Amino acid sequence: MSNRLKVTAVSGSYKIPSRTTAVIEELTQRLGKQIPIDLHLIELSNIASDLVASFNPADLPIGVQNDIKAIENADLLIVATPVYRASYTGLFKHLFDLVNYESLFDVPVLLAATGGSERHALIIDHELRPLFSFFQALTLPVGVYGTEADFVNYKVNNPILSARIDLAIERALPLLKHRELVKPDLATHAASVKLATA
Ligand SMILES: Cc1cc2nc3c(=O)[nH]c(=O)nc-3n(C[C@H](O)[C@H](O)[C@H](O)COP(=O)(O)O)c2cc1C
């Protein structure tokens, strides 16, 4: 059995390139520097046409069924969506409509979003957090929100957003260790990486 953390990351953007996917990439890369992870990345831009045509997971192509299974079996979910009309994208919700409602009990979920402006930053707490409360998941305390102005060429380009991404990872790690999702030997690894980079 792998002792790597099974991380499933979902980008709710329909576009490539995507600022939302860029945030996911930063989060997963920085987490991967702290602890060994197996990453399953789901970009809605890749599965949108299949997803929109089905209301039953059994009718989906096998690749998308595997994406849904990766959500249901994750040790840690990292979810990010662009703000569309003050909420998550329609297909982001549709994807989670197809996820088994009993599969995410107590699963840590790191929440992130990007929007055109700061005005919809509360999407994290007013839209995403309630959705994952429905699933009885453990939404992590620090969410990440970026605006279009924080990116250049679809890459994070604002030290404040970058620091927030670091903080989200820093605050997630003790919880992952406490829940023994990170095995003690990996926790030691994480601690040594942290010391080395301090
Ligand atoms: C249909 C649509 C609706 C949007 N609605 C909002 C909104 O309500 N509030 C906001 O701050 N930004 C809104 N935006 C801007 C996007 O959230 C923003 O550009 C985001 O960073 C896009 O992410 P992406 O590059 O990952 O696709 C909207 C964009 C589109 C295309």
Highest CATH level, the class: Alpha Beta
Radius of gyration: 16 Å
The description of the largest β-sheet is: 6 strands, parallel
Series of H and E elements: EHEHHEHEHEEEEHH
CATH topology: Rossmann fold
State the end-to-end CA separation. Answer: 32 Å
CATH superfamily: Flavodoxin domain
How many β-strand stretches? 8
Keywords:
single chain; 198 residues; alpha/beta; Rossmann fold; 6-stranded parallel β-sheet; two-stranded antiparallel sheet; 7 helices; binds flavin mononucleotide
Summarize the structure.
This protein has helices at 19-34, 44-52, 62-72, 90-97, 123-134, 159-178, 184-197, and strands at residues 5-11, 37-43, 76-82, 108-115, 138-139, 144-147, 151-152, 155-156. By secondary structure, the chain is of the alpha/beta class. It has a single domain (5-197), classed as Rossmann fold (3-Layer(aba) Sandwich), CATH 3.40.50.
